[in-house]
Amino acid sequence: MRTLAKRVGAGLAVLYGAATLAFVSLQLIPGDTVSTLLGPATTASAEVRAQISAELGLDQPPLTRYLAYLGRVVTGDLGSSYQLQRPVWQLIGDQLGPTVQLAAAAMAAAVLIALVSAVATAGRRRQVRAAATAWELVAVSLPSYWLGILLLTAFSFQLPIFPVIGAQDLPALVLPALTLGLPIAGVLAQVLREGLEAALAQPFAVTARARGLSQTAVRLRHALRHAASSLATLTGWLVGTLLGGAVLVETVFGRSGIGALTLQAVDNKDMPVVMGVVLLSALVFVVISNLVDLLYRVIDPRVRA
């Protein structure tokens, strides 16, 4: 119960910190929210602007709005969108499916690519390891929007294998998932290869080879499980970066989702929507972190002990 209480308290602290930082950051964005909502060509009078500001609560001091927002969040009310006049939870729910699909496909692709690269190159000749390190550094260094454009040019324009933009079926998911997953795969492969090489030098690996097991069997049956703890930790942390990457990827490929909704909300200074997305990201981070901690008990028997 003490451990559970600590986890719940830490999760609530993360959610509170995310909500506070998001609120302060949005207050620092230049520009008037009412003018943004009305558009640059508006001829609305000062009375109309004041009425809209009062309806949205923007005429109140920032501290009052902050405390009122925290009070609504505690009750599960994230408010309504300034621009679309719909509840924030409803907007997020409508766009959550495509983003979850993209994030899951990207993470699955990243883990698979990292496993293949690390298992195939750990403990090999220097030239093989250098080639693997080179592609990992390139994958990590490339901006996601540029990587997406390169993949579109190669596999949609030059070789019309995948749809260009806008489609939501399975073939249209391949290029966005690779765009979002390749940089993560580069990081995971580096960490996993180092863990595998450290595990292969342990006495249990030497004993397994002395019993006649092949190099591949030692890697997959013994060393991989030993090195998987660091991979699980890093994977949990990197899940939180998928939402930020989804903003660019969904824009490049013309996909609907949380990323496109966030970008539109930031452009329109739609504070309730932005705050809702930030809280959703913080909640995902808290849940994934606790799941990773539970996964340790499955991977590493020492944690269970």
UniProtKB/TrEMBL annotation:
InterPro entries recorded: BPD_transp_1_N, MetI-like, MetI-like_sf
Localization (cell): Cell membrane
Chief subcellular location: membrane
Transmembrane spans: 12-29, 102-122, 134-158, 170-192, 231-253, 273-296
Signal peptide residue numbers: none
Keyword terms: Cell membrane, Membrane, Transmembrane, Transmembrane helix, Transport
Gene Ontology terms: cellular component: plasma membrane
GO terms for MF: dipeptide transmembrane transporter activity
Magnesium keyword on record: no
Membrane topology type: Multi-pass membrane protein
Domain of life of the native organism: Bacteria
Xref: CDD domains: TM_PBP2 (cd06261)
Gene3D superfamilies for the chain: MetI-like
Residues covered by the ABC transmembrane type-1 domain: 96-296
Assigned protein family: Belongs to the binding-protein-dependent transport system permease family.
Protein name: ABC transporter permease
